[in-house]
Specification:
The protein is of the alpha+beta class. Helices cover about 25% and strands about 25% of the residues. The chain contains 11 helices and 19 strands. Strands 1, 2, 3, 8, 9, 10, 11, 14, 17, 18 and 19 form an 11-stranded mixed beta sheet that branches. Strands 4-5-6-7 form a 4-stranded antiparallel beta sheet, with no helix packed on it. Strand 1 and strand 2 form a beta hairpin. Helix 7 packs parallel to helix 10. It is globular, with a radius of gyration of 20 Å. The structure holds adenosine-5'-diphosphate (ADP) and magnesium ion (MG). Keywords: ATP-binding, Coiled coil, Microtubule, Motor protein, Nucleotide-binding.
Length: about 400
C-alpha cells in the first residue's frame, strides 16, 4: 500500500519499506510560483497541450502521462513521488539519505535531478540558505555519521571536489580560473580528472563555503525560457576514506558520493538561442541523452542478467560518472516536473514524449524492469518492459 512520506499529504512512496534498489527513480513536482499561482491545479497542462500530466497521489498509480492525440495512455511508475508541498528534507530522506551508509562503507553512489529548465533541479540539488538541497543535506549526514563513530572503528577522512562540465569541457569549480581538465582512464578502467582539486573538509561549513564560491563560478546564461538557467552540469563528489585500526586485518575503503546538478534542456525556438547558446544547448542535450541511455542500460543490466553494454563513452558527463553508475553502485534520479507554462521540454516524437522529453518514461520502465526481475518490487513493470515504456 502507498506509504505516507513525511508531513506532506501529496507525498507517498510505492516502494516497499526496507527494499533497497540499485536504481531509484523519484519524481518531484514543483509548485507554481508568483505570477503562475492562479494556475494552481493538480492537473498539469504543458507542452502545447500535447501532454497532460496528472498527479494522483491518492491512488497507487502515482503518475500518469497522457498524450492527447494518442488513444493509449501511458503510465509510469516511480519509487517515490514528491508533491508540491514536499521539502528538500523529505526528498533527501527517501533518496540520498538511504545511500549514505553504503558510501560510508566504501561503495559509490550517484544522485541527480533530471528535468526541463526551471523545473527545480538546482532547487533540489543545491537549494538555498533556508532550504538546503541534497548536496548540503548529504554532507551534513556524512559528518554526523563520522562523529558518531567510535575510535575503535578507525579513522574517516572526508574530501570533496566540485567541477562543471560546460560544452563537453571539464572545469574545476574549486579554483579561481580553471583551465580545461583532461579525463583519464587507467588500465583498470578507473576514471580520473587530472589536476582536479580535492579538498579535505572537516565540517558542513567548509562545504557550504566551497559550494558558494563554486556556484558563483558556474556558467549561467539568461535565456528567454528562464532568467538564470545553468548552462553547465555541476558535479560535487564527496569522498569518504575509511582506514580501519592498524592490525592484522587493517584495510581502507573509499566511498564516493556524486551529486549532480544538471543543466536543463530547452528548445532552440523557444529560447531564441543562436550561435554559442545554440551550441551549448546541443552539448547539454547530448550529455543528457547519453545519461538517459546509460540509465536505461543500467536498469536492464541490474535485472540479474549479465551486465550489458552501457554507453558511457558518449559524453564527458557519463564518462565522469562511470564509477558511480556501474554495477555495484547505487544510483538515484529525481525527475523534476513543473506545470508552469515557461517550463518546456524537448520536442520529441509522440512515442518518446514523456515528462521531461528524454525518454524518461523508458528510464523508469527500465528501473521497473530491474525491480521486477529482482523480484523485489512491483513486477508488472518488468513484465511489460520492452523497447516501449511499460503500461501498468
Ligand atoms: P532548474 O535548475 O531545473 O532550471 P530551478 O531549481 O532553478 O530550476 O528552479 C526554478 C525556480 O523555481 C527557482 O526560483 C526555484 O527557487 C524555484 N523552485 C523550484 N523548485 C521549487 C520547489 N520545490 N519549491 C519552491 N520553489 C521551487
Ligand atoms: Mg539549474
Amino acid at each position: 500500500a502507498p506509504r505516507s512520506a513525511g508531513r506532506s499529504s501529496k507525498t507517498f512512496s510505492i516502494a516497499p519499506e526496507g527494499v533497497e534498489h540499485a536504481l531509484t527513480v523519484a519524481v518531484r513536482v514543483r509548485p507554481l510560483i508568483g505570477a503562475n499561482q492562479d494556475e494552481r491545479s493538480d492537473i498539469l497542462r504543458e507542452m502545447d497541450k500535447k501532454v497532460v500530466v496528472v498527479l494522483d497521489p491518492d491512488s497507487e498509480k502515482s503518475y500518469l502521462d497522457s498524450v492527447q492525440h494518442r488513444s493509449k495512455e501511458k503510465r509510469y511508475t516511480f519509487d517515490v513521488v514528491f508533491g508540491k508541498q514536499s521539502t528538500n528534507e523529505e526528498v533527501y530522506d527517501l533518496t540520498v539519505g538511504r545511500m549514505v551508509a553504503d558510501v560510508m562503507s566504501g561503495r559509490s553512489a550517484t544522485v541527480f535531478a533530471y528535468g526541463a529548465t526551471g523545473s527545480g533541479k538546482t532547487h533540489t540539488m543545491v537549494g538555498n540558505e533556508h532550504d538546503p538541497g541534497l548536496m548540503v543535506l548529504a554532507v551534513t549526514s556524512i559528518f554526523r555519521n563520522v562523529r558518531s563513530m567510535k575510535q575503535t572503528d578507525g579513522e574517516y577522512t572526508v574530501s570533496c571536489s566540485y567541477l562543471e562540465v560546460y560544452n563537453e569541457v571539464i572545469y574545476d569549480l574549486l579554483v579561481q580560473k580553471s583551465t580545461a581538465l583532461d579525463l583519464r582512464e587507467d588500465p583498470n578502467g578507473n576514471v580520473k580528472v587530472s589536476g582536479l582539486r580535492s579538498l579535505e573538509v572537516s565540517d558542513v561549513k567548509d562545504i557550504m563555503k566551497l559550494l558558494e564560491t563554486g556556484n558563483a563560478r558556474r556558467k549561467t546564461e539568461s535565456t528567454k525560457a528562464n532568467a538564470t538557467s545553468s548552462r553547465s552540469h555541476a558535479v560535487l563528489e564527496i569522498q569518504v576514506n575509511h582506514a580501519s585500526r592498524p592490525g592484522v586485518h587493517a584495510q581502507s575503503t573509499l566511498g564516493k558520493l556524486a551529486l549532480v546538478d544538471l543543466a536543463g534542456s530547452e528548445r532552440a525556438a523557444e529560447t531564441g538561442n543562436a550561435g554559442q547558446k545554440l551550441r551549448d544547448g546541443a552539448n547539454i542535450n547530448k550529455s543528457l541523452l547519453a545519461l538517459a541511455n546509460c540509465i536505461n542500460a543500467l536498469g536492464k543490466a541490474t535485472g540479474g542478467r549479465s551486465l550489458g553494454y552501457v554507453p558511457y563513452r558518449h559524453s564527458k558527463l557519463t564518462r565522469l560518472l562511470k564509477d558511480g553508475l556501474s554495477g555495484n553502485s547505487r544510483t538515484c534520479m529525481v525527475a523534476t516536473v513543473s506545470c508552469a507554462a515557461h517550463v518546456r521540454s524537448l520536442p520529441l516524437r509522440p512515442e518518446q514524449c514523456t515528462i521531461s522529453g528524454h525518454r524518461l518514461g523508458q528510464c523508469c520502465g527500465r528501473a521497473g524492469a530491474a525491480r521486477g526481475a529482482l523480484g523485489t518490487g512491483r513486477g508488472t513493470a518488468g513484465d511489460a518492459c520492452g523497447s516501449d515504456p511499460p503500461v501498468i
